[in-house]
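Re: weekly structure request thread

Next one in the queue (352 aa):
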Amino acid sequence: MVEMDELLQLVVDEGVSDLHLEVGAPPVIRLRGEMTPLDLPDMTPADTERLIKSIAAPKHIQQINECGGADFGFAFGEQARFRVSAFRQKGNLGAVLRQIPNKLLTFEQIGLPPAVKDLLYRPRGLILVTGPTGSGKSTTLASLIDIINHERACHIITVEDPIEFYHKHNKSIIIQREIGNDVPTFAEALRRALRQDPDIILVGELRDLETIEAAVSAAETGHLVFGTLHTTGAARTVDRIVDAFPTNQQMQIRTQLAAGLVGVISQVLCPRIDKPGRVAAFEIMISTPSIQSLIRDGKTFRITSDIQTGAKYGMNTLDSHLLELYQKKIISYGELITKAQDPEGVIQKLGG
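Done, posted below.
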């Protein structure tokens, strides 16, 4: 009978990103992007229930019973933190545990260009980190906050669901609030945050209209606001925010975004072929007067060409970064084509 501590130790030792616990299958790990079953017996309903109850608080079990699922974070000693999504399926308990690395990455380790660092010194505005689920957005955001914490004397408020990285006060003072534990919703936390003298606000996820509105207005009123969205590419990110609003408010939000958005960092994670591990590919959009007018006029489809010609501002498209990684033999051709925004354009650049 396998114990949760043994599974978590394996996850930490092997550098596994996710652990899946499902009835009728052995525990499965995601290692360097690949799903790999462990050499263990298939789990019974009693097994998954025992394993999940060993890490979940009574209130989380109650939430699973009442709502069908619960998300929470917990620490595995000093070694790592985990983000858990526990749920019922076919009447049985299942869970996915995502390992949150204890060590935050430096700017160079993430692979971000220096132009992004300049954004961290802006007095106000909205910086969005976007990408599909599991693309490393949380790690990038936590690392950016860590850099500010070590280099600037600020008051930082983070609102997360759940809290993933625990930050210690350094040059800055950091308040971290968890949805469900400390405050009921993102929108409520943002409203309160504005009365708590913040310089910087991090919103774990811009998941509804109320939260997006609160984040945009916080950026307008003199705060530097960080947030995440599950979009790929800067143009799609702007569209996604505008489309969240009713038609009669879309002109107004375009004007607000044009003024308030200072940058979009869009990322995907790719398995490496040069050595074990994964590498992030980035699209960097930094707001310029030209991009501001494209956002205001609803011509987001032209943002990509502005990014292509904006290298002097530190901008690059996702496809150009993927191409660079492929040409340096860091990622495979298959990865280049599946992750590219415009695969045909990439094939043409390679000479057909």
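Residues 255 and 296 are 5 Å apart (CA to CA). The chain is about 40% helix and 25% strand.
Next request, please.
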